[in-house]
Amino acid sequence: MDRVMDTLQQAILDPKYHDILGILKGLRNGAIYGSKVRFAHALVMTFLFRNGSFKDKMVLIIKATREHARNLATFVFIYKSTLYVLKSTNGKAQDIDTFIAGLLGGYVVFGRGGKSSVNQQIVLYVFSRVVLGLAKLTVKKKLIPSLHEDVGNKVWPAFAAVCWGLVMYMFRTDPDVLQPSMKTSMDYIYLDSNRWDSLRTLVWHNE
Question: According to the lineage, what is the superkingdom (predicted)?
Answer without folding.
Answer: Eukaryota
